[in-house]
Design brief:
Elements (H helix, E strand, L loop, with lengths): L8 E4 L4 E4 L5 E2 L14 H13 L6 H8 L4 H19 L7 E10 L17 E9 L17 E6 L5 H11 L5 E5 L13 E5 L3 H5 L3 H17 L8 H13 L6 H11 L4
Length: about 270
Amino acid sequence: CKRCGNEKQYWLQAKWQWQCSECGFRTTLRSGSMMENSNLPIRTWYLAMAFMSFTKKGLSAHELKRQIGHSRYATVWSLMHRIRKAMGNRDARYTLEGLVEFDEAYLEKATPEGLVLKRGKGSQKQQNVAVMAESTPLEHLEMGTQSKHCRYFKMKVLDGHTSAQINYTVSKNIDEKSIVFSDKSKSYLDIANYVEAHLTYKSDKHTTGSELKWVHIAISNAKRTLLGIYHKIKGKYLQLYLDEFCCKLNRRYFGNQLFERLTLAVAKSYW
């Protein structure tokens, strides 16, 4: 029970709810999940999850609104954000291990009308994002061989360009026994304190195509996806869009199983 912690409850058939035998607190089928307090039918949630998982790159709220036949854009937009939040919560349960590439990207975001924009680094149009790639090769479960493709990715929006932000991101998303590869940015000087080893390379064309190959592939794909589908994204919502992008990227070989994994993430109780 959420209120008293009692483990004995009984089912109310007429209400379709569980009721605590100790304090009488009732728990619905949606309680604790992303669907809690939502007035939308569960069928609408499943349709939204289906369309969001069946598309390789993504779709806009206007397109989903048209596909499911809903009348209000704001409701569909909010629904998609809650599903994206579930995707982020699912990936947050795991940390990157082994050989990990680390770099930063600058993604374009929407800015208020009439704002005088600064150019270059620190521009209000650019949002700093930490990009991490677990470059340990994937293993083919049936063949027992290793693939040439990268395994897992993570992208985290940063509040600034300080080393403290970088250190916090590394400590929360990368296992302490990992080996991290990055360029020689001054913000990365303390990464070695949080992992097994930290190897740096001078940033140039060769480094981009070899040592830090996968993070730059992920950055270019993310920019192309976000710009082509959503055009302009407000900074406070950018993390949700990146959560969706990384969730699909990390499960790119799941096929139709991606829908099943997404329903588990949305229905999971976070009490």
